[in-house]
Amino acid sequence: MELRKPPPVRRLTGKEGGPVAGWSATAPNGNGNGNGTANGAGQLAPPSFTTARRLVEPSTLAIDRMHVEQLSVSYGPKRAVADVSLPIRQGEVLALIGPSGCGKTTLLRSLNRLTEITKGTSYSGRITLDGLDIASMEPTELRRRVTMVFQQPNPFPMSVFDNVAYVLREQGRRRPRKRELQQPVRDALARAGLLEEVEGNLDHPALRLSGGQQQRLCIARALAANPEVLLLDEPCSALDPQSTKVIEDLIVKLREDVAVVIVTHNLQQAYRVADYVGFMYLGELVEYGNGPTIFGSAREQRTKEYVSGAFG
Amino acid sequence: MSAATAVAAAPSPKPGSAWRLSDRIGLAFAWALGLLFCALTVAIIVYFLIEGIHYLRPSMLVTNPKAGFNQSQTGGFFAPLAGTAILAAMSMAIALPTGIGIAVWLSEYGRPYALARVAESTIEMLAGAPSIVLALFGLLLFQTPLLGFLSQTTNGVVLGPSFFAASAMLSLVGLPLVVTNVREGLQAIPSHVREASYAVGKTKIATTRRVLLPAARPNVITGAMLGVGRIIGDTAIVLILLGDTLTFSPSSGFLGLLRGEGTALTSFIYDNAPSGELNQPQKAYAAAFVLIVIVLLLNLVVELAGRRARRMRWS
Fold first, then answer.
1. Which of A249, A253, A264, A259 has its CA nearest to residue A294?
2. Where are the beta strands (DSSP E) in chain B?
3. What integer is the mean pLDDT of A209-213?
4. Residue A157 touches partner B, C-beta closer than 8 Å
5. Among A267, B77, B90, B214, which is most exposed with the fewest C-beta within 10 angstroms?
6. Average pLDDT in chain B
7. Distance, in angstroms, between A222 CA and closest chain B CA?
């Protein structure tokens, strides 16, 4: 079956012009604590986690941020994710693809323990964030380090400014006041590429923005917490092609600062933005590999069929 | 048979003209009933507007009622008007926080499940309870010596009727409206909005306070306004639990006034109606006009809040 040529793609260019860190190159080789410094110390200038996190060159290395190890998630008797293991690295965009109901959203939501909200959820396996088991972390702290953007743009019913400031403030408090938050809020909006458009309208209700702007506000909100990992659950499925392009460009830019995981139904989108792709089917991770491999020369029959449009 | 040929065979008829006769009769019937209902409501309002404007003098709004035999002697209805305002404020001061609390519990927590269901049916029962029953119960309640500090006492006997007693019982009249509306507003918020707040590390309480309740604000306003409408329109509780006096009791201070008996617009209208003991129908019409205007204004607020709510929604 012929694979239809997807549109041209911006891709990390490594030495061979291919994707930078191959699956085997930085695969968890018994060093499952997720600390990338130890891994890459041999060949590459090791970045310091505390100081140089934002300065990492995406073209030269990727840092392991999270490790999913043999994760299974069930809703009551129904198993949604079965025995999935994969690394999540900063400097790369990881796309999870697969037909509806294959567990990719569940996998995404278990990364910041949002699955716990659903009653009757149980899981086994282990997820680590920078070497720390997330099950042992305070959920609120974890969710500030692993933030999420949803399918529907969902700004809070307050001003553009307050939407971002909400994240920066303590739980239910109104402090710190507006003046002290000006700079961080602006920074977050700038990182999401929204600042120019809403400059001067920061006090306007966020729900008056266009859909694409709303979604970028949601990304700004998610970035305001200064997370290590950004989860995107089909962030463009409710948007028009132009807004989609803006957000895709943004995603590619963001991967330098944060590890980005995106769930998408849209294969072309996965091809355009992802450095690594995980194909899920019926709760299992059928195949994981870099973009060209998955889309061009997948090992598994199921993957080949799915990316060529035979089902799903 | 393709869709194209089907369309060509039956060019789309003008909507309505292809309807069956029974449908058209049904529609006409529904229209007629709707118009009749509107006409009835408009007639009542217009009648009272005309009668009311006819008899209403601005001075009535600032003079107290007096005992007398004809329209010129009996003064105005300042005290009833103030009484209605006090009752509305005090009742909502109780009903609004309580109602919001119950609505949040029912909508966001709902646990323990059995208790939540019981609370739900209790609210429904309260909404359907005749206020005269609440009034009677309130009288028994507030005549107990334990609650004597909320009303006046003569010769060691607790009287019962007071602004406190009436407000407490009237808040039960307004409570179901607050609960249902706020709850509806909270449930209309998509779950992904809650999750978006959890997903940036916020707790459930912070989410409720800073995201959910602000989002449900139009419904809070609607519930409060409808509740106030019910409260100021209630007669039975005012008659029994407020004492239905001519003016306020001459007690000292604001607290003394609230502990004393008083009067409100509804009981004033009741007394001045042709069948009432004061029998000054012109005063009754004028007061009824004021009451209707207040209720119409409340409904206007509800409408505006609803429009705002429809504009500010998630896709």
1. A264
2. 153-154, 157-158
3. 90
4. yes
5. B214
6. 87
7. 6
Asked, as a colleague might, if the bond just before A176 is cis with ω within 30 of 0, I would say yes
B202-207 mean pLDDT? 91
* Cross-strand pairs, A81: A73
What does the pLDDT read at residue A221? 92
Task: Kindly report the pTM of this predicted structure.
Answer: 0.79
Residue B202 and residue A140: Cβ atoms within 8 Å?
yes
State both tokens at A155. 């700004």
The amino acid occupying position A191 is R
Contact B215 A150 (CB under 8 A): no
Q: Using CB atoms, pick whichever of A143, A151, A205 lies closest to residue B201.
A: A143
Going from N- to C-terminal start, the domains of chain B cover 22-55, 76-314
B201 and A144 in contact by Cβ < 8 A? yes
In a mutational test of the A interface, the residue from B200, B220, B313 whose CB has the highest number of chain A CBs within 10 Å is B200
How many beta-carbon pairs under 8 angstroms link A with B?
A: 84
Pairing, β A93-97 against β A276-281 = parallel
Average pLDDT, stretch A282-309?
88
3-state secondary structure of A121: strand
Q: Which of A143, A157, A158 sits opposite B200 (nearest CB)?
A: A143
Residue A60 in tokens: 């030269």
| Band of residue B137 on the pLDDT scale cut at 50, 70, 90 | very high
Asked whether the beta carbons of residue B200 and residue A167 sit closer than 8 angstroms, the reply is yes
- Interface probe with B: pick from A105, A141, A156, most Cβ of B within 10 Å: A156
The token duo for B262 is 């008083």
Burial per residue of B113-139, b for 16 or more beta-carbon CB atoms within 10 angstroms, e otherwise? eeeeeeebeebeeeeeeebeebbbebb
Task: State how far the Cα of A50 lies from the Cα of B42, in Å rounded to an integer.
Answer: 72
Within an 8 Å CB–CB cutoff, is residue A137 touching chain B?
A: no
Q: What is the pLDDT of residue A16?
A: 42
Class of domain B76-314: mainly alpha
Do residue B314 and residue A152 have CB atoms under 8 angstroms apart? yes
Contact B201 A224 (CB under 8 A): no
What is each CA distance from B173 to B50, B124, B169, B217, in whole angstroms? Answer: 30, 11, 7, 21
CB count within 10 Å of CB A17 equals 8
pLDDT of residue A61: 63
pLDDT higher than 90, residue B94? yes
With left for phi above 0 and alpha for psi between -120 and 50, is residue A5 left, alpha or beta?
beta
- Judged by CB atoms closer than 8 Å, whether chains meet at A152 and B198 is answered as no
Determine how many CB atoms are found less than 10 A away from the CB of residue A8: 8
Rounded-to-5 percentages of helix, strand, coil across chain A: 35, 25, 45
What pLDDT shows up at residue A146? 93
Band of pLDDT at residue A32, cut at 50, 70 and 90: very low
